[in-house]
Specification:
Three copies of one chain form a homotrimer. By secondary structure, the first copy, chain A, is of the alpha/beta class. In chain A, 21% of the residues lie in helices and 28% in strands. The model of chain A has no long low-confidence stretch (mean pLDDT 96). Chains A and B meet through strand 22, strand 23, strand 38, strand 39 and helix 5 of A and helix 4, strand 40, helix 5 and helix 6 of B.
Chain lengths: 351, 351, 351
């Protein structure tokens, strides 16, 4: 399905220069775009690539347009934030190509008679919904999902296939939950009595705000006594572990395989890199960026980027440096001895 | 449902001081407890907080009671291990609030005719149970679980929704298995022939003892020729990977996202921190504690705590230190050169 | 079911010395093999163990046979690559003991009328297959799998229970996909506009070659605009994360819990160790081996083994070395100061 540029701009804004009737069928990167596609330039370092793109139109900043515009044969859409404009344009095309969701409950689904499901919701094959659950308007629950008792799911949220939500968890509006997510399993809480572990019942919930996306196979545990809280707009990648009683602030993004230990509190507008680990019971303020593979052991009270992983090297070089790291104490002692000797020599010398 | 303190003490022990008819409805932390709840003090550093709690009663040690008891207006339960007592009390209240499990097999479940399921067991919607499987008394298998042929599940065990157990695995009594767990998938075993991988069939089983808890999305692979063994009382958090032929000793606890490589042998009463990695074919003795984010490359033959992760820093500081770590060899050479020079100077000086 | 050695050799090759009518029932390691089993010696360091094995026959190299053959009372199979021969022999026995797969579609499965399923395929209970999907000959799809629309699965592939494949992904022939795998979920792609994340629709696919094995709970995201590609013969262990637009070359093996960030390109015949992390947008050439727990931050252009993780130590020792790592800059400054002083002293001394 083709779209005229003027329709795009009417819908998304931006300043269009060129033929408003140019038709485009979709969006593609600078190097791949065909003459029926629109492309985007979000980083000035790709200007020379932009000059050669085949695309029918380009989204770019005013600064880039000042340089490229005169020579560009296609249409241009000048936008404040070309990358965000690209995202919205991609959403625009995706919505046009989307397969409509048919409301209704698949006959193979098992719903408790006390569950409330909006008539506009789509409930796929083999879905199981427990007593007292509330499923809001236009929610989509795909095949094999199991929704525990008293769970609430907000309007327009989408649960992909094989998601499991334990009892009493609450999810806001417009959530996207990917397959294999487990929300509300017991937190890891035990008391030790003479070597034997005694389970501490986990009676809190998981509370998810609006506009949250949760990647495949991510797990979010229910709180022990209080709740685990994920605020509005948080984006979680795949295979992340959020332990009991964590609190993640609005618009924070966490990359794949990160693990957040119990009762950690992460601020708003943070980013946590892939496979990073956040220790339990620590607090990280707003606007902190933890790099991939980094373990945050203590609270972070100042915005900025924080890093800590061992630099990669050829195996033989690593072996040498790792041995020296273990013996840094010896090195320091040698330096101290040298300092003493040099001091003595210098004093003698000055006598 | 309210409970008189005397009922609690009759059930759990401990020395009750104060009004035995005091009624409590549940348990809460020091700061949150209301006048109808019981609380606990497990760490002397919170004594001042304990002095101000609103709780109707407090669980505490004799030592803490000696300090706080005189001034405390509520009832006190003096226990040897207040934290373990709290866990048991929480279990006591959770049991009272638990929704009774109804025995029986949901009509949508698919059971092989040769599977043996105890009449007191609960089999949820869409559960699939293979030939020859044996499901013991009061086992609970929630929706969407798939139980392979010849699997054995011991009495009172609970499998939450969407758990997958491959053929021939055995689980003891009172297990708690969380959603998304995969037990008995093939271990990662291949022989290389001229660059091409040839699969080694994985014909061992997974054997799980009694009282084991396994967190959401954790995977435990079957053995290659022999079995993978998890002893009694082991507690595994979420997203842990246990490779083929591992052996985990009794009461060992492993935190989320840890990975244990093939044929590793971990002793009893150990703890493995979150995202820690245990190398293959190594042996760790009893009572070893591996810190979060630490890679154990070699066997550990002495109890104690072991750690190894790069300290976090502001990104710029990390870059500097990481560069120096790579060049530690140069630093050592400079120290050696200095030592030589200083030695010569000192000798000359003493001539 | 017993097998005569001559049948094994007829099927797998190798040079048989000894009684070709010797019957064996299976394969076992040197130390465990009984007199009715065959064993193998793949590493000369176990020669003394081989000399004492009870096995009816042994697979070994010509070099090992030259040393051990004269004294060995059982039959010997001399093979170029004894470990690969063992793998094939284990497959031979496994095939004999395998439970035959019965073609057909379980009545509880939900298939879109436009899905094409070969008559020799096995579709288990509660499987859901979307519109336009194509399931080739002798494919096995176990209980609870959800196959999205337009998915293609090649001949003889096996999906274990509870696998989820999103729309339009393609899997080659002879794949083995373990339970909990999620393939084709959205990549983690967002544009930031004034602090708020805007989703970038993920419209690429996942393309899997022939002879690929994917471990339990591994996730492979669909591409953003282009596709995520896994070439023939790649072996992925459990709980691996492959982000959008990655490209993994043929016969590369990746161990459990590794995470490969977006648009990373890994060559052929590589190995990535457990819990290793590969940064986004980097390129790793063929025949590179990244050690466990190592973060590869930059492209690697030369074959070889690369490592980078902090060495484990007793916690107290680690604390000291970690502090010194943070202060390496100070140490370097002290060395510089010393060098200056020693230079001055040496110059004075030479005056």
């Amino acid at each position: 399905m083709r779209t005229r540029l003027k329709e795009l701009v009417q819908s998304l804004g931006g300043h269009l220069i060129g033929d408003a009737d140019t038709q485009v069928s979709g969006i593609a990167p600078l190097s791949d775009a065909t003459t029926s596609q629109i492309t985007f330039l979000s980083n000035p370092k790709f200007r020379s690539q932009a000059a050669q793109t085949q695309a029918a139109a380009i989204i770019l900043s005013a600064a880039d347009d000042a340089v490229l515009g005169a020579d560009y044969r296609g249409a241009r859409i000048v936008a404040d934030n070309p990358y965000a404009y690209f995202a919205k344009a991609a959403q625009f095309f995706a919505a046009r190509n989307a397969i409509p969701v048919i409301p209704g409950i698949h006959p193979s689904a098992t719903l408790d008679p006390t569950a409330q499901v909006a008539s506009s919701a789509h409930i796929g094959p083999n879905v199981v919904i427990g007593a007292g659950a509330v499923i809001d308007e236009e929610v989509r629950i795909e095949a094999g999902c199991v929704i525990g008792r008293n769970v609430k799911i907000g309007a327009n949220s989408c649960l992909n296939a094989n998601v499991t939500i334990y009892a009493s968890c609450e999810i806001g509006a417009r959530a996207i939950i990917h397959s294999g997510v487990v929300m509300g399993a017991d937190g890891f809480g035990f008391a030790n009595a003479g070597g034997t572990w005694i389970k501490i019942p986990q009676t809190g919930r998981v509370l998810i705000g609006d506009d949250v996306e949760i990647g495949a196979n991510t797990t979010i545990d229910r709180g022990a006594l209080a709740d685990t809280v994920i605020e509005d707009g948080v984006k979680l990648d795949n295979q992340i572990q959020i332990a009991h009683n964590c609190h993640i602030g609005t618009q924070t993004a966490i990359a794949a395989c990160a693990s957040i230990a119990g009762s950690a509190r992460i601020g708003k507008y943070c980013s946590i890199g892939g496979a990073a680990m956040i220790h339990g019971h620590i607090t990280i303020v707003d606007h902190v960026h933890v790099s991939a593979g980094t373990l945050a052991l203590r609270s972070i009270s100042e915005p900025g980027q924080y890093t800590g992983f061992y630099p990669i090297a050829k195996h033989g070089d690593w072996e040498k440096s790792a041995t020296l790291v273990r013996n840094l104490n010896t090195m320091r002692e040698k330096i101290r001895t040298l300092e003493k000797s040099v001091k003595q020599l210098t004093e003698k010398d000055n006598e």
